[in-house]
Design brief:
Elements (H helix, E strand, L loop, with lengths): L1 H10 L3 H13 L6 H20 L3 H8 L4 H7 L3 H8 L3 H14 L4 H13 L3 H9 L9 H13 L3 H14 L4 H13 L3 H14 L4 H13 L3 H14 L4 H12 L1
Helix pairs in contact: 1-2, 2-3, 3-4, 4-6, 6-7, 7-8, 8-9, 8-10, 9-10, 10-11, 11-12, 12-13, 13-14, 14-15, 15-16
Length: about 260
């Protein structure tokens, strides 16, 4: 019953209610021996919820650690890999990829995860040719263009990097990392006015985001809108009073 309510809450986007239903389902588990298998299944649901809904990879990993490895691979073969990448454990992710690459050759999701690991390991020289040899379907994925843009900028091609980063942000305008990196791609070329659209989109996704507020203020400063820059930095400090970057930039503007 609790799991039915959980699924309905997810459909209605009532995230808090969905999480409550998961915990209530866990509390209602029967005693051993049947309880343990059900608990593992619920922990898989908890891990998925924490990562895909809450965006908390650390919490998701904590739930997943209690689930036997063979169940993880059967029910959710890529979840642990996504979590290792999200938490920055790229060496472990690289090791976890090997059996998947061997048993699922040509699987585009696995190949794109391998590309993410190469980016995490900052192996840019290997990443670019790796991306180029992927099947044409990969180019329908925002992650392809995002990773290609990152590789290009690290290899010194800022112009084509910006094109690819913006393409990723266009394909997935609600993925904050893509939007922010598109803004940074513009800044890399000194295209401050162009970058503003990306910082504003980031603020639509997260109205108090420190990085977006600081970067939009810098774009305003470079466009000689000093009052606008000061206002944005003060707003940033309202939400993030310990932001050293905002403090330093505002002090510089006030001094001038």
């Amino acid at each position: 019953l609790w799991m039915e309510r959980f699924q309905l809450a997810l459909l209605d986007r009532e995230d808090d209610l969905a999480e409550t239903c998961l915990f209530e389902a866990t509390r209602a588990l029967p005693a051993e021996p049947n309880g343990e298998a059900l608990r593992w299944e619920l922990n898989l649901h908890h891990a998925e919820f924490q990562y895909w809904v809450r965006g908390d990879a650390e919490a998701a990993l904590a739930f997943l650690e209690d689930v036997p490895a063979h169940l993880q691979h059967i029910e959710h073969p890529f979840l642990r890999l996504h979590l290792l990448i999200a938490t920055g454990d790229f060496e472990a992710a690289h090791g976890a990829l090997r059996p998947l690459l061997a048993h699922r050759p040509g699987d585009l999701e696995v190949e794109l995860l391998q590309a993410e690991v190469l980016a995490g390991l900052e192996n840019w020289k290997a990443l670019l040719p790796y991306l180029e040899q992927l099947p044409i379907e990969a180019r329908n994925q925002a992650v392809f263009w995002h990773l290609r843009g990152l590789a290009l900028v690290h290899l010194g091609d800022a112009f084509h990097s910006r094109l690819d980063l913006e393409r990723a942000a266009h394909l997935e305008p609600t993925t904050l990392r893509y939007v922010l990196d598109a803004g940074h791609g513009c800044v890399e070329l000194g295209e401050w006015e162009r970058s503003e659209a990306h910082w504003r989109q980031a603020l639509r996704l997260d109205p108090t985001l420190e990085e977006a507020l600081v970067q939009l203020a810098e774009a305003k400063r470079m466009g000689h809108d000093l009052p606008g820059a000061r206002q944005l930095l003060r707003e940033c400090l309202t939400h993030h009073p310990t932001s050293e970057e905002a403090q330093i930039r505002l002090a510089e503007l006030e001094a001038n």
